[in-house]
Amino acid sequence: QVQLVESGGGLVQTGGSLRLSCAASGRTFSSYVMGWFRQAPGKEREFVAAIRWSGGSTYYADSVKGRFTISRDDAKNTVYLQMNSLKPEDTAVYYCAAGALIGGVTTRSNYDYWGQGTQVTVSS
Question: What is the pLDDT of residue 30?
């Protein structure tokens, strides 16, 4: 059974940093794309960042480019999202996702598995 377990969320002030983790288990993810999405209250779930497990190509939403970094640790089967220079508009529940991805990395319906989410709150 595939499991994605996020951790690392919390409350931080504007300009601060957090690192989210997504521990993946239950299958081999070497051919998968791992993504991070977020959903703020009253808004649609939106793409944040993604990484191809094989090769390590990365993708970012324009809103986080230059501030967030996605990475992976093969030995730990874990994907990270380092978030720096956080802004109040980054406040959301952040979800980890995994997919074989026939389509684009920014489309949430292309992902097969999802974590339960972790809350990130940035105070002004």
Answer: 85
